[in-house]
Amino acid sequence: MFLSAVALLTMVNRSEIYPRLAPARRNDRILIVAPHIDDEAISAGGYAVDAIANGAEVYVVYLTAGDCNRFSARLLHRTLEPTASNYLSVGKTRIAEAKTAMKILGIPPDHFFVLGYPDRGLRAMVDNPEAIVRSRGTRAHEVPYDDALSPGSEYRIENAINDLKQVIELARPTTVIAPVPFDMHTDHAATAEIVDLALDELQWKATRLGYLVHSRRMKPLMNTPTRALLPPTRLKQFSWATYPLSDRVKQIKTDMLMTYKSQRPYVFLLRNAFVRRNELFFVYPSPAQLLLAR
Q1: Selecting from 3.40.50.10320, 3.30.420.40, 3.10.20.30, 3.30.830.10, what CATH number does the domain 24-293 have?
Q2: Is residue 88 predicted with pLDDT exceeding 80?
Q3: Which value, to the nearest 10 degrees, does the dihedral of the CA atoms of residues 46, 218, 81, 138 take?
Q4: Closest Cα to residue 104, out of 56, 178, 45?
Q5: How far apart are alpha carbons 165 and 13 in whole angstroms?
Q6: What is the H or E stretch that residue 30 is in?
Q7: With the C-alpha atoms ordered 264, 266, 267, 268, is the resulting torsion angle positive or negative?
Q8: Which residues does residue 210 pair with via DSSP β-bridges, in sequence order?
Q9: Beta strands in 203-259 (DSSP E)
Q10: Cα angle 51, 55, 60; round to 5
C-alpha cells in the first residue's frame, strides 16, 4: 500500500533545481485535501488531470465551504455589511462551483466530499479540542449544508477528524496531497495538522505531498504560464519536487479556476500565481527514512 516518496521522484536535467515528481499510475489512489473550495485546483489540479488520464483514482475533500469571504459576500449580495445568511449563501455558491470544477476535472460525485467546517475557524478547532467553535461568517456552530458529509455535525475538532477518517477509509489513498504546516494561512496550517491526526489515528501509511499557497511572495499581476513555480527563497532548501504541466493541462487547470466566479477578481491573481509550467510539492520523508534518521 505504501509507496516510498523517493521512488516517485526521477531526476531531470541539471538545469533543474528540484527533482521531478513522476506521474500517478493506474494503481495509484490520490486524495487531495483542500481547506477551501479552489485549493484543489490551485495546488494539484494539473497533477490530478494527468493522474485521471493515466487511470488512477482521484478523490477530493474540502474541509470548509469557504463561506467566510467578506469580499465575496459583499459582491454577491451588493452590501457592505453582509449578514450571516449572506455568508451561508456564499458557501452554497462555492459548493455549486466546486461541483462544476469537479466535472471539468473528471471526478465523479462519489469521489469528492464537502465537510463544511468553519472557514477561518479550523485553527480555533485544533487549538481548543473541547470547544464547539462558532463560524465568524455564518454564525453557525454546526455544519449547515445538506450536501455535506455530516450535516448538523458540531464544529468540534473530533468531528472534523472523524469525517476526514471516513473519507480516507473510502478513498484508501496511496498518496495524500494536503497543505504544508508552514503555510501562512491559519486554515491551511491547521489542515496539515488535521490530516496528520486522521492518518495517525487510522495508522494509514501513504506517500505525503504538501503544497504551499500562502507565503510572503507577491502575487503576480501578469499571467505568466511559461514561468516556473518555485518556493520562496527562505524555503528553497526544503525538500521540494516539481510536476511539469503541458499546455493542455494548464488550460484545464485554468478552466477549473475560472469556475470559481464568486472569487473574482482574486481568482485571476491565483491563476497568475499558480498556473505555471509546473506545480510544486513538498515531499515528506517516508516512515523508513524517518527511522533511519533516528
Answers
A1: 3.40.50.10320
A2: yes
A3: 40
A4: 45
A5: 40
A6: strand 29-34
A7: positive
A8: 178, 282
A9: 207-211, 240-244
A10: 50
Q: What is the pLDDT of residue 218?
A: 56
Distance from chain centroid for Cα 37: 8
Residues 6+ positions from 142 with CB-CB distance below 8 Å: 152, 153, 154, 155
Burial class of residue 177 in the structure, from the number of CB atoms within 10 Å of its CB (0-12 exposed, 13-18 middle, 19+ buried) = buried
91 touches 145 (CB < 8 A): yes
pTM to 2 decimals?
A: 0.92
The whole-number pLDDT of residue 217 equals 67
* Cross-strand bridge partners of residue 178: 210
pLDDT the model gives residue 16:
67
36-53 in b/e form (b: 16+ CB < 10 A) is bbbbbbbbbbbbbbbbbe
pLDDT digits (tens, 9 = 90+) for 140-165: 999 999 999 999 999 999 999 999 99
- The C-alpha angle 175, 179, 180, rounded to 5 degrees, equals 100
Nearest one of 65, 59, 92, 91 to 166, comparing CA atoms:
59
Residues 230-264 have pLDDT tens digits of 999 999 999 999 999 999 999 999 999 999 999 98
Contacts 24+ apart (CB under 8 A), 104-110: 104/252, 104/255, 104/256, 104/259, 105/41, 105/45, 105/48, 105/49, 105/52, 105/58, 105/252, 105/256, 106/49, 106/52, 107/48, 107/52, 107/58, 107/59, 107/60
CA 63 to chain CA centroid, Å, is 9
End-to-end CA distance of the chain: 24
